[in-house]
Amino acid sequence: MINAFKLTLPEKRSSCLVFASPHSGNAYSQAFLSSSILNEREIRSSEDAFVDVLFSAAPLFGAPLLAATQPRAFVDLNRSVDELDPAVVQGITKSSNNPRISSGLGVIPRVVSNGRAIYRGKITRSQAVRRLKDTWGPYHAQLAAELAKSHALFGKSVLIDCHSMPHEAISSINHGKQGCPDIVLGDRFGAAAEPEIMARVEAAFDAAGLTVARNAPFAGAYTAQHYGRPSRGQHVVQIEIDRSLYMNEKTVRPNENFDELKGLITQVIADLVSIGRCKLQLAAE
Fold this sequence. Notes:
Helix content: 25-40%
Order of helices and strands: EEHHHEHHEEHEHEEEHH
Structural class: alpha/beta
Number of strands: 9
Radius of gyration: 19 Å
Largest sheet: 7 strands, mixed
Oligomer: single chain
Strand order of the largest sheet: 1-3-2-4-7-5-6
Shape: globular
Strand content: 5-15%
Number of helices: 9
Protein backbone atom coordinates (compact mmCIF):
# COMPACT_ATOMS: atom_id res chain seq x y z
CA MET A 1 0.00 0.00 0.00
CA ILE A 2 1.40 3.39 -1.02
CA ASN A 3 1.79 6.04 1.65
CA ALA A 4 0.62 9.08 -0.28
CA PHE A 5 1.43 11.86 2.18
CA LYS A 6 2.81 12.88 5.54
CA LEU A 7 0.58 15.08 7.69
CA THR A 8 2.18 16.98 10.57
CA LEU A 9 -0.36 18.56 12.89
CA PRO A 10 0.26 21.29 15.46
CA GLU A 11 -0.27 20.59 19.15
CA LYS A 12 -2.93 23.30 19.02
CA ARG A 13 -4.45 24.55 15.80
CA SER A 14 -4.33 28.33 16.15
CA SER A 15 -4.52 29.59 12.55
CA CYS A 16 -6.76 29.08 9.55
CA LEU A 17 -3.66 28.49 7.42
CA VAL A 18 -2.88 25.09 5.92
CA PHE A 19 0.53 24.55 4.34
CA ALA A 20 0.91 21.95 1.60
CA SER A 21 3.87 20.70 -0.44
CA PRO A 22 2.53 18.54 -3.29
CA HIS A 23 5.73 18.23 -5.31
CA SER A 24 8.43 17.49 -2.71
CA GLY A 25 7.81 13.74 -2.51
CA ASN A 26 10.93 11.63 -3.04
CA ALA A 27 9.82 8.03 -2.42
CA TYR A 28 11.05 6.67 -5.75
CA SER A 29 10.20 2.98 -5.75
CA GLN A 30 12.52 0.60 -7.53
CA ALA A 31 9.61 -0.49 -9.73
CA PHE A 32 9.02 3.09 -10.88
CA LEU A 33 12.70 3.78 -11.48
CA SER A 34 13.00 0.55 -13.45
CA SER A 35 10.12 1.60 -15.69
CA SER A 36 11.85 4.87 -16.60
CA ILE A 37 14.63 5.55 -19.07
CA LEU A 38 15.98 8.25 -16.73
CA ASN A 39 18.36 7.72 -13.85
CA GLU A 40 17.40 8.76 -10.33
CA ARG A 41 19.11 12.15 -10.50
CA GLU A 42 17.54 13.01 -13.86
CA ILE A 43 14.05 12.01 -12.77
CA ARG A 44 14.34 14.24 -9.70
CA SER A 45 14.67 17.36 -11.86
CA SER A 46 10.91 17.92 -11.70
CA GLU A 47 10.82 17.49 -7.91
CA ASP A 48 10.38 20.46 -5.59
CA ALA A 49 13.18 19.03 -3.50
CA PHE A 50 13.36 20.04 0.18
CA VAL A 51 10.36 22.38 0.04
CA ASP A 52 8.69 20.35 2.78
CA VAL A 53 11.81 20.88 4.91
CA LEU A 54 11.83 24.62 4.26
CA PHE A 55 8.25 24.86 5.58
CA SER A 56 8.62 22.24 8.32
CA ALA A 57 8.19 24.83 11.09
CA ALA A 58 4.53 25.47 10.20
CA PRO A 59 3.11 23.09 12.86
CA LEU A 60 5.20 24.83 15.54
CA PHE A 61 3.18 27.97 14.80
CA GLY A 62 -0.23 26.30 14.91
CA ALA A 63 -0.79 25.30 11.27
CA PRO A 64 -0.81 21.81 9.70
CA LEU A 65 1.69 20.80 7.03
CA LEU A 66 0.64 18.27 4.39
CA ALA A 67 3.54 16.95 2.32
CA ALA A 68 3.38 14.47 -0.54
CA THR A 69 5.61 11.43 -0.26
CA GLN A 70 5.30 10.20 -3.85
CA PRO A 71 7.30 12.05 -6.53
CA ARG A 72 5.78 14.45 -8.99
CA ALA A 73 7.13 12.36 -11.86
CA PHE A 74 4.93 9.50 -10.61
CA VAL A 75 1.71 11.49 -10.05
CA ASP A 76 1.36 15.27 -10.26
CA LEU A 77 -0.91 16.31 -7.40
CA ASN A 78 -1.30 19.82 -8.82
CA ARG A 79 -3.32 18.49 -11.74
CA SER A 80 -6.91 17.40 -12.11
CA VAL A 81 -7.46 13.67 -11.84
CA ASP A 82 -8.80 13.63 -15.42
CA GLU A 83 -5.78 15.37 -17.02
CA LEU A 84 -4.57 12.10 -18.53
CA ASP A 85 -2.14 12.17 -21.43
CA PRO A 86 -2.96 9.82 -24.32
CA ALA A 87 0.74 9.87 -25.24
CA VAL A 88 1.67 8.18 -21.96
CA VAL A 89 -1.43 6.19 -20.90
CA GLN A 90 -2.85 3.45 -23.12
CA GLY A 91 -6.51 3.68 -24.09
CA ILE A 92 -6.90 7.42 -23.44
CA THR A 93 -8.35 9.58 -26.19
CA LYS A 94 -7.60 13.25 -26.56
CA SER A 95 -10.67 15.17 -25.41
CA SER A 96 -9.58 18.80 -25.33
CA ASN A 97 -6.72 21.14 -26.10
CA ASN A 98 -5.11 21.15 -22.66
CA PRO A 99 -1.71 22.87 -22.77
CA ARG A 100 -0.44 21.01 -19.71
CA ILE A 101 -1.23 17.64 -21.28
CA SER A 102 0.17 18.77 -24.63
CA SER A 103 3.47 19.67 -22.99
CA GLY A 104 3.67 16.29 -21.24
CA LEU A 105 2.76 17.63 -17.81
CA GLY A 106 -0.57 15.96 -17.12
CA VAL A 107 -1.56 14.22 -13.90
CA ILE A 108 0.76 11.37 -14.86
CA PRO A 109 3.65 13.25 -16.46
CA ARG A 110 5.26 12.15 -19.69
CA VAL A 111 8.36 14.33 -19.22
CA VAL A 112 10.48 15.97 -16.55
CA SER A 113 12.28 19.30 -16.89
CA ASN A 114 13.70 20.26 -20.27
CA GLY A 115 11.20 17.92 -21.94
CA ARG A 116 13.08 14.72 -21.11
CA ALA A 117 10.82 11.69 -21.56
CA ILE A 118 10.24 9.50 -18.53
CA TYR A 119 9.24 6.31 -20.40
CA ARG A 120 10.09 4.57 -23.65
CA GLY A 121 6.46 3.78 -24.35
CA LYS A 122 3.17 3.96 -22.47
CA ILE A 123 1.86 2.67 -19.18
CA THR A 124 -1.40 0.72 -19.05
CA ARG A 125 -4.66 2.34 -18.14
CA SER A 126 -4.97 0.06 -15.10
CA GLN A 127 -1.55 1.22 -13.89
CA ALA A 128 -2.65 4.83 -14.23
CA VAL A 129 -5.91 4.21 -12.37
CA ARG A 130 -4.03 2.48 -9.56
CA ARG A 131 -1.61 5.38 -9.18
CA LEU A 132 -4.44 7.88 -8.99
CA LYS A 133 -6.41 5.78 -6.52
CA ASP A 134 -3.43 5.19 -4.24
CA THR A 135 -1.79 8.62 -4.44
CA TRP A 136 -3.95 11.40 -5.87
CA GLY A 137 -7.15 10.39 -4.09
CA PRO A 138 -5.78 10.12 -0.52
CA TYR A 139 -3.74 13.32 -0.79
CA HIS A 140 -6.65 15.44 -1.97
CA ALA A 141 -9.07 13.83 0.46
CA GLN A 142 -6.75 14.82 3.32
CA LEU A 143 -6.16 18.30 1.93
CA ALA A 144 -9.91 18.90 1.60
CA ALA A 145 -10.44 17.65 5.16
CA GLU A 146 -7.79 19.98 6.60
CA LEU A 147 -9.20 22.98 4.75
CA ALA A 148 -12.74 22.13 5.91
CA LYS A 149 -11.49 21.91 9.50
CA SER A 150 -9.82 25.31 9.26
CA HIS A 151 -12.95 26.82 7.77
CA ALA A 152 -15.12 25.38 10.54
CA LEU A 153 -12.82 26.70 13.28
CA PHE A 154 -11.95 30.10 11.89
CA GLY A 155 -14.66 30.99 9.40
CA LYS A 156 -12.21 30.83 6.51
CA SER A 157 -9.33 28.75 5.21
CA VAL A 158 -6.09 29.87 3.61
CA LEU A 159 -4.06 27.28 1.75
CA ILE A 160 -0.40 28.12 1.26
CA ASP A 161 0.58 25.83 -1.62
CA CYS A 162 4.37 25.52 -1.51
CA HIS A 163 6.50 24.92 -4.59
CA SER A 164 9.93 25.65 -6.05
CA MET A 165 10.91 26.73 -9.53
CA PRO A 166 14.04 26.23 -11.64
CA HIS A 167 16.17 29.35 -11.68
CA GLU A 168 16.06 29.36 -15.48
CA ALA A 169 12.28 29.82 -15.32
CA ILE A 170 12.69 33.30 -13.88
CA SER A 171 16.23 34.26 -14.89
CA SER A 172 14.96 36.45 -17.73
CA ILE A 173 12.38 38.31 -15.63
CA ASN A 174 13.34 41.89 -14.86
CA HIS A 175 12.14 43.01 -11.45
CA GLY A 176 13.55 46.50 -11.66
CA LYS A 177 16.74 47.24 -9.74
CA GLN A 178 16.29 44.06 -7.70
CA GLY A 179 16.67 41.76 -10.70
CA CYS A 180 14.72 38.52 -11.03
CA PRO A 181 12.36 37.56 -8.21
CA ASP A 182 13.20 35.15 -5.42
CA ILE A 183 9.53 34.32 -4.93
CA VAL A 184 6.58 34.17 -7.32
CA LEU A 185 3.14 34.28 -5.68
CA GLY A 186 0.14 32.99 -7.61
CA ASP A 187 -3.54 33.59 -6.92
CA ARG A 188 -4.78 33.15 -10.47
CA PHE A 189 -4.88 36.93 -10.85
CA GLY A 190 -7.23 37.36 -7.91
CA ALA A 191 -9.54 34.43 -8.62
CA ALA A 192 -8.10 32.20 -5.86
CA ALA A 193 -7.63 34.63 -2.95
CA GLU A 194 -8.85 37.99 -1.70
CA PRO A 195 -6.49 40.91 -2.41
CA GLU A 196 -5.93 41.48 1.31
CA ILE A 197 -4.64 37.95 1.83
CA MET A 198 -2.38 38.11 -1.20
CA ALA A 199 -1.03 41.42 0.08
CA ARG A 200 -0.33 39.90 3.51
CA VAL A 201 1.61 37.04 1.99
CA GLU A 202 3.63 39.39 -0.20
CA ALA A 203 4.37 41.67 2.75
CA ALA A 204 5.66 38.73 4.80
CA PHE A 205 8.18 37.78 2.12
CA ASP A 206 9.14 41.44 1.64
CA ALA A 207 9.78 41.75 5.37
CA ALA A 208 12.08 38.73 5.15
CA GLY A 209 14.13 40.52 2.49
CA LEU A 210 12.98 38.38 -0.44
CA THR A 211 12.05 39.83 -3.82
CA VAL A 212 8.49 39.01 -4.84
CA ALA A 213 6.59 38.90 -8.13
CA ARG A 214 2.95 38.04 -8.72
CA ASN A 215 1.38 35.56 -11.13
CA ALA A 216 4.16 35.56 -13.71
CA PRO A 217 5.33 33.12 -14.83
CA PHE A 218 3.29 31.00 -12.38
CA ALA A 219 -0.26 31.98 -11.46
CA GLY A 220 -1.40 28.68 -9.95
CA ALA A 221 -2.70 25.45 -11.45
CA TYR A 222 -5.29 22.86 -10.38
CA THR A 223 -4.98 23.33 -6.62
CA ALA A 224 -5.47 27.09 -6.75
CA GLN A 225 -8.27 26.74 -9.28
CA HIS A 226 -10.11 23.98 -7.42
CA TYR A 227 -9.78 25.10 -3.79
CA GLY A 228 -9.67 28.87 -4.21
CA ARG A 229 -13.20 30.21 -3.60
CA PRO A 230 -12.77 33.65 -2.04
CA SER A 231 -16.52 34.34 -1.98
CA ARG A 232 -16.88 31.30 0.31
CA GLY A 233 -13.95 32.22 2.52
CA GLN A 234 -11.64 29.68 0.86
CA HIS A 235 -8.35 31.16 -0.29
CA VAL A 236 -5.26 29.74 -1.99
CA VAL A 237 -1.91 31.39 -2.55
CA GLN A 238 0.71 29.42 -4.47
CA ILE A 239 4.33 30.06 -3.55
CA GLU A 240 7.22 29.38 -5.94
CA ILE A 241 10.75 29.67 -4.58
CA ASP A 242 13.82 30.01 -6.78
CA ARG A 243 15.64 26.70 -6.27
CA SER A 244 19.05 28.26 -6.74
CA LEU A 245 18.54 30.12 -3.45
CA TYR A 246 18.83 26.93 -1.42
CA MET A 247 20.02 24.01 -3.54
CA ASN A 248 22.35 22.86 -6.27
CA GLU A 249 19.92 22.14 -9.09
CA LYS A 250 22.27 19.75 -10.88
CA THR A 251 23.06 17.52 -7.92
CA VAL A 252 19.72 18.06 -6.12
CA ARG A 253 21.47 18.80 -2.85
CA PRO A 254 21.08 21.67 -0.37
CA ASN A 255 23.65 24.42 -0.87
CA GLU A 256 25.44 26.58 1.69
CA ASN A 257 22.47 28.99 1.86
CA PHE A 258 19.89 26.36 2.83
CA ASP A 259 19.80 27.03 6.57
CA GLU A 260 19.67 30.79 6.05
CA LEU A 261 16.70 30.52 3.68
CA LYS A 262 14.95 28.06 5.99
CA GLY A 263 15.28 30.67 8.72
CA LEU A 264 13.72 33.30 6.49
CA ILE A 265 10.85 30.97 5.54
CA THR A 266 10.26 30.27 9.23
CA GLN A 267 10.06 34.03 9.77
CA VAL A 268 7.48 34.23 6.97
CA ILE A 269 5.43 31.40 8.51
CA ALA A 270 5.45 33.13 11.91
CA ASP A 271 4.20 36.31 10.24
CA LEU A 272 1.46 34.59 8.25
CA VAL A 273 -0.14 32.37 10.88
CA SER A 274 -1.76 35.36 12.56
CA ILE A 275 -4.24 35.43 9.65
CA GLY A 276 -7.70 34.31 10.73
CA ARG A 277 -7.37 33.82 14.48
CA CYS A 278 -10.26 36.11 15.36
CA LYS A 279 -13.15 33.64 15.29
CA LEU A 280 -11.37 31.08 17.46
CA GLN A 281 -10.42 33.72 20.01
CA LEU A 282 -13.99 35.01 20.21
CA ALA A 283 -15.31 31.48 20.64
CA ALA A 284 -12.96 30.94 23.56
CA GLU A 285 -14.03 34.11 25.38
